Amino acid sequence: VKALTFHDSLKVVDDAPSPQRDGEALVRVICAGICNTDLEIARGYAGFKGVLGHEFVGRVVEALDSNLVGRRVVGEINAGCGSCDLCAKGDPRHCKKRTVLGIKGRSGAFAEFLSLPVCNLIEVPDSVSDEAAVFAEPLAAALGILEQVQISPKESVVLIGDGKLALLVVLALAQAGENLTVIGKHESKLDLARRFGARKTIDARAQQADLEPADVVIEASGSPSGLETALRIVKPGGTVVLKSTHHEPTTVDLSTVVVNELKIIGSRCGRMKPAIEMLKSDRVDPTVLISNRFELAEGVRAFAQASMPEAMKVILQIS
Amino acid sequence: VKALTFHDSLKVVDDAPSPQRDGEALVRVICAGICNTDLEIARGYAGFKGVLGHEFVGRVVEALDSNLVGRRVVGEINAGCGSCDLCAKGDPRHCKKRTVLGIKGRSGAFAEFLSLPVCNLIEVPDSVSDEAAVFAEPLAAALGILEQVQISPKESVVLIGDGKLALLVVLALAQAGENLTVIGKHESKLDLARRFGARKTIDARAQQADLEPADVVIEASGSPSGLETALRIVKPGGTVVLKSTHHEPTTVDLSTVVVNELKIIGSRCGRMKPAIEMLKSDRVDPTVLISNRFELAEGVRAFAQASMPEAMKVILQIS
Description:
The first copy, chain A, is α/β, with parallel strands linked by helices.
């Protein structure tokens, strides 16, 4: 199987082992997206070795239920043990024994084929294009914020960051009607934020004197200074959502958290179905975030491109 | 006015300025308790200079409403501006212009007299002794956790710390019926935790192999390693409550917070009325936490005693 693998370095190989697992569906990957988590794994973070990738759309080629064969699908990336309390409740996202597609114990989506439990697959409606469907996973992650934090219409939300995940957060929250201000460092990305429904954007390089304290601050910049900024601009009693995976220990002024009685909420994955519904609604077109497309054979170059500051979503076209 | 003041050092003086403020009630302090925040201020933390102390019971000696004179009272320590949105909603705890008794912009309770707005005073029922009433403020802070976090009866709670504030948290949570495990380092304090209703106690110096991951972990040890421990033992999706003021920046592994989708909640002050109700209920006797009593004139020695590891609540008897 042709695949983009990471061991000591990133490499495209033609002979990766078949990902097929007993009882699961085998999916031929159509295209896949590169996420910052992939870039961090490729820098050695998290200790994952193997085929990378977890944002994908594909077509089922083998499954016990033959009705599934030929369906176009996206997939929940967490595969639970199936028997613990969390899995029994239908939410394997925190199952202790879970594997995670291209992240933990499970071969990923930057390959001709991937394997996932049938219950992880969600069919993609015909009206959603392949390239839009690739955004289902990160859009679900963005929507996950609304699962975790109740934001009332009167409350103000500030988003720190203007990268690809941050902009999906803009889409998700603007659709939910939130009063959103985005702080970023790239004019063109802040333009997109406004197109996606941000009421206001602020260039982080300029003075921030006019920034009102916010009820909710979402840190999605991935930068160590993001949390510091968030703690400075959130109202007492307010909420800071951490949406980026920081892979290094960060120094935090916890006395601010206590004295101002702040809430800090870590947010990782969301549900795929609401994301697919949103993509179907036609009010949302995340494909404008695509900055580059590469063939799988050019995967190493694709990663280099995805690491550039001006890059947005880089897509691998696989079959 | 005789008072225990902190400027460059801690000192008992006989000629502190009268604390009286226009329109406020003047209260003769009966007795007052030393809190860790006082110890930290006396080490130079928070920059407060003046008369320390915020845990007290006293008797009103002057007030515009003569009905108040002679009443025995405790007081909410945050005095708001009275005109901002928060104050208008009756909760000055986060008013930006607030003063805080013995902590910020307002002379404190380690003095013969203090001044507070009438709306901050809560009358103490006759059945509650002076020394029990002194615990109203820290008990309110302990009860504040239940204002901020919904804990269902099925959920498990681990409390890190066995100091005086931690043990009041035990009282507050055990009364609320919580399933509470306490981790501490002092056998006698852990004994008290069990008397106060903890279902289980664990000596932190022993192996912790048998500790089940908890739904809610409350860090009340005041030690920098407390949060680290909390993040290690909390369930994915669980809540960590920060109940101690850490006065130094702390290094936190934020990727654990994101990947496990944890909530970290800072908790400082609570409401006095529920605390007074609890003290009145007679099921609760916090005065067993008193380890030492001193006259105001011996205030400096009292602080030295309160800083000892084995000390619990140190009381200043003032009038």
